[in-house]
Design brief:
- The protein is mainly alpha-helical.
- Helix content is about 60%, strand content about 5%.
- A three-stranded antiparallel sheet has the order 1-3-2. A two-stranded antiparallel sheet has the order 4-5.
- It is flat.
Length: about 325
Amino acid sequence: DADEDLVDDKQCFQIYHERLDVFLRNKRIVNYFAEKYNDEASVVLKAILRLTEPRTKTCKDKVSESIAAQQIVQNISSDAQLDQAVDMSGDPYFKENGTDSGSSTAARKATLGKMAFALLDVLRRDGSGIINKVDERGAGQYRVNFERAAILLRDECLDSLVLNKFSSTHVRVVRTLRDKQKLDEKLVSQAAMLPLARSRELLHELTLAGFADTVEIPRTADRNPSRMVYLWHVSPQKQVSAALRGALQGISNIMQRADQETLARAALVAKSQRADVVAGTTHLTPGEQASLQVLGKLKQQIDVCVIRLDTMLLLLHDMVPGSTAL
């Protein structure tokens, strides 16, 4: 047994980053349904994704393999609290065989299965289109549309960027253009319920930031600008490019700030790492200790910022099937 645990010195190992992206993506999908519905819905979705993980090596897969509903229910933990997940008071069978009569293990499993099937039906009817029912045999076969989930999470990330950079009114305009496709200024103002002058101002601000664009439709053959029709729309590729530029520039600025703060206290950091200081024979002054605490807090804040920006890169680029390397 001891020989089996030995590793050949010639073997090399590396982190499977694409596999980690799969787990991070699945966690984001679970959180999306937990926020939209409840924790019980996320339990069912987690069971579905857990069954897809062994055969999903990267985020390049657009859809998962079909999974039987019975297999999904069996993969849900027996101690999951799904009793109040869905209102089944209108179901005659559930009234007769509800949770009140379920003190035994068999009744508990029956209630868990019935609630799990009800939640599966809710998830497949969701407007996001992430969970699809592909076969009616038995209790049904279900499939996860990873491409649709990636696009949905990407759009949410872009909307949050617009909200942080501008305002909720700008987000309303972006969502209007995303839903309605190409619109002129009057239709944008009507759909977004804004005055024409205000909608025109918002559209120009979004265009300058890369979150909106126009397409020119000539009325005449000479393509005179005064006789052009300008339709506003959003281009996901341009939006992602603008967001990625900002995220990568932000990471670069943060790393430079970390180096600058460390360089400004280089002598103090070197002193704190001396053997006599580490052993406690030489003590730092209160001012030096306070300066080191400030540096430590700054590094923690910088690490948090880098993690947030890296999560943004995952949502905007790494998670979307067919995306090219940065």
